[in-house]
Amino acid sequence: MIANLTSSERQQAFVLAVGVVLAGGAMTILGRSDTLGVHGAIVMLFAGVVLYLIMSSFYDPEPVEDRESSYYDDPIKAGIVLSMAWAVFGMFMGVWVAAQLAWPDLAFDAAWSSFGRLRPTHTTGVIFGFGGNALIATSFHVVQRTSRARLAGQVSPWFVLLGYNLFCVLAVSGYLLGVTQSKEYAEAEWYADLWLVIVWVTYFVLYLRTIARRKEPHIYVANWYFMAFILVVAILHIVNNLALPVSWGHAKSYTIWPGVQDAMVQWWYGHNAVAFFLTAGFLGMLYYYLPVRAQRPIFSYRLSILSFWGITFFYMWAGSHHLHYTALPHWVQTLGMTFSVMLLVPSWASAGNALLTLNGAWHRVRDDATLRFMMAAAVFYGLSTFEGSFMAIRPVNSLSHYTDWTVGHVHAGALGWVALITFGSLYTLVPALWKRERMYSAALIEVHFWLAIAGTLIYVFAMWNSGIIQGLMWRTYTEDGALAYSFVDSLVAMYPYYIARAFGGLLFLIGAIVGCYNIWMTVRAVPVAAARAADVPVTPVAVPGE
Amino acid sequence: MDFDHQAVVAFSKSWGLFYLMALALGVLVYTFWPSNRKRFDRAKHSILDRDDRPWQK
Question: From the CA atom positions of chain B, what is the Rg in Å?
Fold first, then answer.
């Protein structure tokens, strides 16, 4: 981990780790028996392990070669491993909570394993653990390659990666202990949030400084998406988490936003987390790894610029569609609805741009499961953005809101788009990064692809059925104007779909485990390709796209 | 002018529109500016280069 650091950089890393240990100690002392104290101990343990890793090779020989003549790949490799580990954890928790809905006994009557506590470990595990680590790793890779410059820091990439994972650990362990802000996708409490601000600002500064060192005159469009992701997530995170702790020794805090403003800020955050965490960053991956894997330039670079600005400026206004038929002013709801419908234009521009890039290379999509992952991701991106715009229309929302349809929509995006583009990118990136000829097994990528597709389709179709049935049952009236079905009636009707959903999720989880094994064997087993000069798969020469 | 709810609503309903239109116009001009064509063409082909080292000036 620190073999490529000079001794002064090792000292910096040491000081940082000691600082975090001390901060954890302060939390333990201030928090005492409160969960803040438990978290202090976790922080000390985490930073202690990092400190041990630094110390164990502190006096090893320093690197001799000119580091500026190579890219900085060590943190990227660690990020990929962490990402896949979080994928397995987060998806396992997802399967577990899905199974709890069908078989409530699986909560085992304990507080920590109740649905309400496990469900955020699933969402945080997959969105922030899996997705976040994949975004950090790929953004470090893309910014270096497209800028033709090494990362502008030796210690800071590690600080960003490990600091971010400390945040994820605090968040997930907190849910199990019963710590929550009760804000969806922002459940972690104030001290974890403050820590994430420090980590995230470091990330943004590192990214900007690397871009500033670029040797390419133009900033490639993928970097714009990654920068929008980092910048906007910082803004969202800070504004939504403005809160006052009960005391310095207490984990609980209260948001400064009152009533309906709190709801609006939360869903401005929540929807833009979808937009900038789960869309912009992953579009950055799409715009780099898809052309590289297909060995074809993006169909239209101009279209990619137009859709970038469309997405960044339209998404900002769409959050209020989560609050149709609430106390939110009617015109704000209408504004959110209108912008959500308009969003279809830049979203389909991106999806179409990706698919048209593949036009003329369909035989490669057929033969290469890695490229097929990315193609399927673009298709699901197009489908789920269409569905999202549709569901944001107020009368449609009156049927879909609070039902499983929403859950199905989110998973069409999260499994079909976010996870598939990530797996496609990682399968492109791993052999390049570890200087291997190819992935360990093309057959296992194929297995993973079909497990992922089958799992996603089963999941999404189950939730469509269950959601629409729920929505219809809740609005069916008898002749005397009373509700025809009780809530429990609708719950009983969901039972088969909940089983199907858990099964679909299980298939997806198995696919991710297969992917982990394949990546592990690629890193371990295949001998280093001596003649591999390139960073890209070995395929015929580039064909102009337009 | 009072800085109340009505004033903020009026501001965002009018100027918000103009700012988005100005932004859209600016982006369109940038995207289709003739001399940018070469930069964009270079950018989209450049990522397919096969060298894996930072450039030294």
Answer: 21
